[in-house]
Write a structure and sequence with these properties.
This protein has two domains: about 5-160, Cobalamin-binding domain (Rossmann fold, 3-Layer(aba) Sandwich), CATH 3.40.50; about 190-470, tm_1862 like domain (pyruvate-formate lyase- activating enzyme, Alpha-Beta Horseshoe). The strands form three sheets. A seven-stranded mixed beta sheet has the order 2-1-3-4-5-6-7. A six-stranded parallel beta sheet has the order 8-11-12-13-14-15, with helices on both faces. The protein has a two-stranded antiparallel sheet with strand order 9-10. Helix 1 (about 25-35) packs across helix 6 and helix 7 crosses helix 8. By secondary structure, it is α/β, with parallel strands linked by helices. Strand 1, helix 1 and strand 2 form a beta-alpha-beta unit. It has helices at about 25-35, 55-65, 80-90, 100-105, 110-115, 125-135, 225-240, 255-265, 285-295, 310-315, 320-335, 350-365, 380-390, 420-435, 435-445, 450-470, and strands at about 5-10, 40-45, 70, 95-100, 120, 150-155, 155-160, 195-200, 200, 220, 245, 275-280, 300-305, 340-345, 370. The protein starts with 6 loop residues before the first strand and ends with a helix. The protein binds cobalamin (B12) and iron/sulfur cluster (SF4). The site of iron/sulfur cluster has 8 residues, from loops.
């Protein structure tokens, strides 16, 4: 049987040796959309401990001889993607190279210059099929320029075609997970072995200045609760999942949706634990929602608190208050969730005093876990544009934007603090939060099960290990 493929989709690794918790939902949707008409395969290299870019010759180029290769780009995997592209460009008969994802959408011209033939801007669900039809001579369009959502090089310049309409989520097929090696994903954070990602909504109407929203836009689109429960039952039946995770950033925004979804989970006896991988906003929860989710199996969430200083919260465009944070934390504690709080250090208006407010607030809130990353001004975010306008960005070596690499170089010059001071504040935050007697004590009195405690402590050690090397 020939292994030749029309298209191979690749997720370049974020960093060599890193194993992701979940497979890529984006590539699973694209594969599902393409497979009725095209032969497809997917290579997610975020599970490969010893990834070597030359592997793609044996894995893909020789074995599958694809006509098209598509890469999924976040800013973090661009350095590895560049190595992959370089190898492909050296081949005598090379496939057509396309890319999509947040980085391709935010940094189009520079990304095309790496060697891609076409970039898919924004959501790729409909664009990729129209592009493939064009490449394979099956298109109803006369010119490639008529396909919305593309960027490509022509006559020394870059052509942007029209803006692509947002995807209608109710028309999406089930993600094609059969292309993934599902046993290879792992994380200290999940309760069970087979935990799969799912998404109920796309888009976010909020305007946090550190966040990039170029792919899914500002309009919130939510699926029907029935279709979600069907997807979960399908995953349980066909892929033997024992847990699922929502990747949504706004799952509680529509209260009637989340309450109905929780009722359905109970009514259909789904009986699986689940958690909110990207958290929820503190201003979009109440006792009814938090209680309903817990009864339906949700055991963990994170909350983006970002700062313990009201002015910094305003500067970030976060539109939340410290009292709203206190209320939300109290609700999740009341219903006995595992709670992680995310703080962000080094916003351009940060001072040593405001960072200390953040540390104090984290200790006051006393969640199970707290994380204190330093701001990374991802391209396309408002804070990136602000720093650029003030000439405070330090080059555009995307490797420095890789939050998984300890000791990465600074990405921007802070107006008030030196980089060493920022890193010192980060160390202080972790030490002050985790190395205090009250922390260990509250973990002991909140004791759930031995396996839960073991899992939480593994997470704490992974944060502290990371801290030691940075
Ligand atoms: C879930 C999630 C995670 C999970 C990842 C789990 C996993 N394995 O997928 C976890 C928690 C690990 C995570 C971590 C991080 N994340 Co994150 N994450 C997300 C989130 C919320 C959803 C991603 C997702 O699955 N979307 C659903 C799928 C359907 O969308 P998609 O992958 O984008 O694919 C669509 C299009 O992009 C396009 N497309 C994508 N690939 C391709 C390829 C081709 C060939 C084509 C044609 C089209 C195409 O078509 C797809 C279908 O429409 C997004 C925000 C968001 N709303 O997307 C942030 C987001 C991707 N994360 C981001 C960041 C910054 C991070 C972290 C750096 C955070 C940190 N400080 O540590 C890390 C880095 C991890 C990494 N891999 O790079 C940024 C990326 C910004 C950037 N420029 O790269 C985003 C956009 C958040 C934001 N708004 O700022 N993240
Ligand atoms: S951080 Fe969350 S709430 Fe803020 S804009 Fe991004 S997705 Fe929306």
């Amino acid at each position: 049987m020939s292994l030749d493929k029309d298209i191979v989709l690749i997720m370049p690794p974020v960093v060599e040796g890193f194993v992701m918790a979940n497979p890529s939902l984006g590539l699973a949707y694209l594969a599902a959309i393409l497979e009725p008409a095209y032969s497809v395969d997917v290579f997610d290299y975020n599970i490969d401990k010893n990834f070597n870019p030359h592997d793609i010759i044996e894995d893909i180029l020789t074995t599958h001889k694809p006509k098209v290769i598509g890469l999924s780009l976040t800013t973090l995997n661009v350095p590895q993607a560049e190595k992959i592209v370089e190898i492909i460009l050296q081949q005598d008969e090379r496939p057509i190279l396309i890319a999509g994802g947040p980085h391709a959408t935010a940094v189009t011209e520079e990304t095309l210059a790496i060697g891609f033939d076409y970039l898919v801007i924004g959501e790729g669900d409909n664009t990729i099929l129209e592009l493939m039809d064009f490449i394979f001579g099956r298109s109803s369009f006369d010119k490639i320029d008529d396909i919305d959502g593309l960027a490509f090089k022509r006559d020394g310049g870059v052509v942007y075609t029209g803006k692509r309409e947002m995807t209608d989520m109710s028309k999406l097929p089930l993600p094609a997970w059969h292309y993934f090696d599902l046993d290879k994903y792992s994380s200290v954070a999940v309760k069970n072995k087979r935990c799969m990602p799912i998404m109920a909504s796309r888009g976010c109407p909020d305007l946090c200045k550190f966040c990039y929203k170029g792919v899914f836009g500002a309009k919130l689109r939510v699926r029907e609760p029935e279709s979600l429960v069907e997807e979960i039952l399908y995953l349980k039946e066909n892929f033997k999942i024992d847990e699922f995770v929502f990747l949504d950033e706004n799952i509680t925004t529509k209260k009637d949706f989340i309450l109905k979804f929780c009722d359905l989970l109970i009514e259909k006896e789904v009986n699986l634990p689940w958690f909110l991988g990207s958290g929820v906003r503190v201003d979009r929860v109440d006792d009814e929602i938090v209680g309903a989710m817990k009864r339906a199996g949700c055991y963990r969430t994170s909350l983006g608190v970002e700062s313990g200083n009201e002015q910094i919260l305003k500067d970030m465009g976060k539109k939340i208050t410290k009292d709203q944070v206190r209320n939300a934390v109290a609700l999740f504690k009341k219903h006995r969730y595992e709670l992680t709080l995310y703080f962000l250090l080094g916003y351009p208006t940060e001072t040593k005093e405001t960072a200390q407010d953040t540390i104090n607030f984290a200790i006051e809130l006393n969640p199970d876990l707290a994380q204190f990353p330093v701001l990374t001004p991802f391209p396309g975010s408002e804070v990136h544009e602000y720093l650029k306008s003030k000439d405070l960005l330090i080059g555009s070596n995307w490797g420095d934007y890789n939050t998984f690499i300890p000791n990465a170089n600074p990405t921007f010059k802070h107006p008030n603090l030196t980089w060493e001071e920022i890193l010192e504040l980060k160390r202080k935050a972790y030490k002050s939060f985790y190395f205090r007697p009250g922390y260990a004590f509250s973990q002991i009195i909140n004791i759930r099960s031995i396996s839960d405690v073991r899992r939480l402590w593994k997470m704490v050690f992974s944060f502290l290990g990371f801290l030691k090397s940075s």
